[in-house]
Amino acid sequence: MKSIEVFISYHEEDEELREELEKHLASLLRENIITSWNARKIVAG
Fold it and tell me: CA-CA distance, 5 to 38, in Å (whole number)?
């Protein structure tokens, strides 16, 4: 089964909230039901 890609958009002041959200999503990530990414994972070039 293909995982669902989740993009997390947030303001830098909400970094702690993003981290908390990823904690809640951790079981789905471990089971490869979803994959997540955010602006911090975007590389230049």
Answer: 11
The pair of three-digit structure tokens given for residue 23, joined into one six-digit string: 């904690």
Mean pLDDT of 36-42: 74
Domain of residue 34, residue span: 4-41
Judge contact between 11 and 40, C-beta under 8 A.
no
How much of the chain, in percent, has pLDDT values that exceed 90? 62
How many domains does the chain fold into?
1
The contacts found for 26-32 with CB under 8 angstroms, 24 or more apart, are 32/3
Euclidean distance between CA atoms 29 and 45, whole angstroms: 27
